[in-house]
Every structure is written in C-alpha cells, then in structure tokens.
Amino acid sequence: MAKTKPGKKDLDSYSIKGTNKIVRPGDCVLMRPSDSDKPPYVARVEKIESDHRNNVKVRVRWYYRPEESIGGRRQFHGAKELFLSDHYDVQSAHTIEGKCIVHSFKNYTKLENVGAEDYFCRFEYKAATGGFTPDRVAVYCKCEMPYNPDDLMVQCEGCKDWFHPSCMGMTIEEAKKLEHFLCSDCSSDDDAKRSLNAFPVSPSVEAKVGTLALLCVYVLLFHFVYESLRSRSNFYSDNLIICIRWLVQ
Ligand SMILES: [Zn+2]
Ligand SMILES: [Zn+2]
C-alpha cells in the first residue's frame, strides 16, 4: 500500500458508506450506537478530517435526547425533540449511518409532514449541570405547560392562548371539529359582555330624552294655552270694557 502523507488534513465532505449521501461540516448526522437496541445518536458535524492513516474522523457536537438529559423526559418534550449539548467528541466517520435535519422549533411546527429524518431543537443543554438555555420558556393552557408540538392544541379566539382539549374537558375529536373556540375564561367574559350589552343602557337614555321631550311639549302646550287664555281674557276684558262703556252711555 502506498504511503500517505503524515499529519491531519481537513476535508470538505465525506460520503456515507454504501450511500450517495454526502456529509459536510454543519450537517446533522445519525451515528450508530454501540448498543444496537438504542436509537441512533444525533450530532452536528463541526469538522471532518483524515489522519495520517487516511482514517476519516469527524469532530461532532452531540444532541441529547430528553431521556439522556439529567432531568429526563418531561411531558412537554416532543418525540422528535433534541437538546444541543456542549459535549463535543471525535468519532470515526464510519459510525455515521445517515443524515437528518434538526429544525428550529418554529420551523418544525410549520412542517406539513414530519419525516423520520426531521427533529427539532429549542434548548441548548449543559451536559455537566443539566442546565438549559433558555431556562425559561413560554407556557400555555390552564396547565401552564410549554408547547409540545406532538400534542394538539386549540387557540382561543379571545385571549389567543393555546389549550389542550383534555384540559378544556374535550376529546381530540371534538376539538378537531371546532370552528370557533373560546376558553372557559373568555366564554365567561363573553357572557358578562353580552349581559352588559343586554342591560338597557341606551333605552334608558332614550327614555330620559323622551321624558324631556314630553316635558317640553307640556311646557309649550301650557305656554300656548296660557297665552291664548291670556289673550282671550284680554279680548274678553277689552270687550267687557266696551260693553260697559256702551251700557254706561
Ligand atoms: Zn393543558
Ligand atoms: Zn381565552
């Protein structure tokens, strides 16, 4: 066998054995576990290099599955969720058995179909301490849980919060059939608003305006009658004076 140059050499890519798939730095890969019962390890390839014997090695940054983390899998962790760890390693490229895509959480939730190769990551993970970045995440529903993209949630048209059908006393089938959804808080608010609207605020104002108008009519009528009586009394009194004068004469 021809002797190769000693020393390490950076490679731009590596072809996965028995496939036409090419791995480049930055790609995410599935790596064969030592225990074949376990699912493949997931890693991000940082660097590909060949050593003086032409063995291809990959420097990887491991993704942890929730069950591999110190805190373990929690209810809000998705089936395809991974944590980008601070744990780096150098592995033989031979252990790479396939490629995968680790999506951002947002992009993952937009996928129409989640394939076997699709994963998502929303947390970075410190392997030594079990700490997560970010250490806080938005929570939803009455149960105040972070969003698990595997679970169906329905959005309330009132407060725009998302809810688990089960937490709202619904089955998933019932939730899927819903065209409109208001959570219990917003539907009770809605009832309060409706009863407020039903409360006759405007009609009472109209009634007051009506009473006032009627009062004006009465005043005008009274004024008119009074004036006409007064003028008539003037008329009578004038005529009376004329009559008296006539009688006196
Ligand atoms: Zn809930
Ligand atoms: Zn609501």
Account of the 3D structure:
Among the domains are: 9-138, Bromo adjacent homology (BAH) domain (SH3 type barrels, Roll); 212-249. 18% of the residues are buried. It has helices spanning 105-110, 172-177, 184-198, 201-248; strands at residues 9-11, 14-15, 22-23, 28-31, 41-50, 56-64, 81-92, 96-104, 118-125, 132-133, 139-140, 145-146, 154-155, 162-163. It is elongated and about 80 Å long. By secondary structure, the protein is of the alpha+beta class. Helix content is 30%, strand content 28%. Helix 1 (105-110) links the parallel strand 8 and strand 9. The structure holds zinc ion (ZN) (2 copies). One zinc ion is lined by residues 141-143, 145, 164, 167.
SSE blueprint:
Elements: E1 9-11, E2 14-15, E3 22-23, E4 28-31, E5 41-50, E6 56-64, E7 81-92, E8 96-104, H1 105-110, E9 118-125, E10 132-133, E11 139-140, E12 145-146, E13 154-155, E14 162-163, H2 172-177, H3 184-198, H4 201-248
Parallel strand pairs: 7-9, 8-9
Antiparallel strand pairs: 1-5, 2-3, 4-5, 4-8, 5-6, 6-7, 9-10, 11-12, 13-14
The chain binds zinc ion (ZN) (2 copies).
One zinc ion binds next to helix 3.
Family: Belongs to the SHL1/EBS protein family.
Keywords: Flowering, Membrane, Metal-binding, Nucleus, Transcription, Transcription regulation, Transmembrane, Transmembrane helix, Zinc, Zinc-finger
Main location: nucleus
For the structure shown, list the relevant keywords:
30% helix, SH3 type barrels, 4 helices, binds zinc ion, 249 residues, alpha+beta, 6-stranded mixed beta barrel, two-stranded antiparallel sheet
